[in-house]
Amino acid sequence: MRPTLKEKKRYILIRSIEGDVKWEDIKKAIREFLGDVGLAEANPKVMEKGKGYIILRVRHDMVDEVRASLVLLDALLSVPRVSGTIKKIRDFIKEGR
Amino acid sequence: MRGPGISSWINLKWAPFKTSTMYDFGIFGDFDFDLTKLGFKGGVFFKDERKSIVPGHLIKVRDKFELKKSVKGKKGFILLEGGDYDLRRYAVEKCLVDGIIGMEKLKEGMDDVLAKRMAERKVSLVINLRDYTKARRREVILGRMMRHVFLAKKFKTPIMLVSGARRKGELKHPYVMISFGVMLGLNVKEAREALRMAQEGIIKRFKNEANA
Fold first, then answer.
1. Is there a domain that residue B135 lies in?
2. Which of A38, B19, B74, B87 yields a CA-CA distance of 20 to 30 A from B97?
3. Structurally, how many domains does chain B consist of?
């Protein structure tokens, strides 16, 4: 497939300030906020899980929707970085920012 | 004289988007938390003045007389919650408050007349995220929020986004709040301003009052 026709993606870093982030809770929140259709459109995938952080891959035009759905979570989270490549997110974590 | 060479733009770094200029002006719980950890510059803790950037006063009254009495002599951020439409209209027209919160919970919250008056007198529409997250019928609240934002944009009423946190876990990251604002119909710039503009005005006014 030509690159222009491929689906563009964004990588979102979700970090918990206290406790741990669970993918199931995030998915539930997205489903509640956007519905099944929205969840399918956003197509979120966990790319990496670490201690207190998750890197999610979503469709590029659904970043705001996915981020907004985190309001439904009862956890102290931060979303410090969104990037087009996973490498930049990893660098961001390595730098300890 | 040599102009800017290639090296000047190769090393160009985009200035990071600063969340540190943003404020959460609606924290209703009594807990200790350093808001700078989340990226906020400060906030208003209604239960504890010492932690607040400006003292906050939440006013819940039923009639105009009580309103006048409770506002008298108070400095800082004055927020009106509840009451009927006439009371809210009176508070706005007499410039007694800085913002009105919780209108989404009411059937007759904000209409075009109130939005226009609020814009003229710089009274903010305060959107509380907790009203949405803890509502029994979330879709109704979200719909009203969208309608209020539409009216506020039309008449250029100042908007404030607040977390309304009562526990530590209910605090939200500024980016999450901006994204929620975008969902309500604001653009990214307006959503950022909803966390900064009106708040900075209130802080400035409070400092001037303190110095005078």
1. yes
2. B19
3. 1
* ipTM summary value: 0.91
Q: What is the pTM of this model?
A: 0.90
Pairs of CB atoms within 8 A across A/B: 49
Is the CB of residue B149 less than 8 Å from the CB of residue B187?
A: no
B27 touches chain A (CB under 8 A): no
Angle (CA) B191-A49-B16 rounded to 5° is: 35
**B16 has a pLDDT exceeding 50:** no
Domains, in order of start, for chain A: 6-94 (3.30.70.3250)
Q: Which of B167, B170, B179 sits opposite A67 (nearest CB)?
A: B179
Handedness of CA B55, B34, A71, A40 (dihedral sign): positive
The answer, for A71 touching chain B at a CB cutoff of 8 Å, is: yes
Q: Of B160, B194, B172, B141, which is closest to residue B38 (Cα–Cα)? A: B172
Whether the per-residue pLDDT at B4 is higher than 50: the answer is: no
The domain spanning residue B207 has which CATH number?
A: 3.20.20.140
Searching chain B, which residue's CA lies closest to the CA of residue A29? Answer: B133
Mean pLDDT of B32-38: 88
pLDDT tens per residue, range B52-64: 999 999 999 989 9
